[in-house]
């Protein structure tokens, strides 16, 4: 646990050392980084908790329907 906390503190200090001068100088770079990080986090959460399961369920349903169709009508290699 101490190693994890030490690593976290190290990351926190290096992040602060990187962004503090940029924020004080009025740079837009921290804003862009924050916006990109927010977008990545929101997209990932949306996919994992919402769209991922719905898309997988739809694909499973489509696969079952296609298998049922092929069973009734046959499956040929050509259209």
Task: Give a topology summary.
Blueprint: H1 2-25, H2 29-73
Structure description:
There is one protein chain. The protein has one domain. The protein has 79 residues and is mainly alpha-helical. The protein has helices at residues 2-25, 29-73. The radius of gyration is 25 Å and the shape is elongated. The relative contact order is 0.05.
Quickly describe the structure.
This is ATP synthase subunit e, mitochondrial. With 79 residues, the chain is an all-alpha fold. The protein is built from two helices and no strands.
Low-pLDDT parts are none
- State the helix count: 2
Beta-strand percent range: under 5%
What is the subunit arrangement here? single chain
Whole-number average pLDDT? 92
Number of domains: 1
- The radius of gyration is 25 Å
Keywords:
79 residues, mainly alpha, 0% strand, elongated
């Amino acid at each position: 646990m101490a190693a994890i906390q030490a690593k976290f503190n190290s990351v926190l200090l290096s992040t602060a050392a990187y962004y503090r001068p940029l924020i004080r100088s009025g740079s837009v770079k921290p804003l862009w980084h924050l916006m990109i990080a927010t977008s990545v986090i929101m997209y990932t959460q949306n996919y994992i908790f919402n769209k991922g399961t719905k898309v997988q369920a739809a694909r499973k349903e489509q696969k079952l329907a296609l298998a049922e169709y092929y069973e009734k009508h046959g499956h040929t290699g050509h259209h």
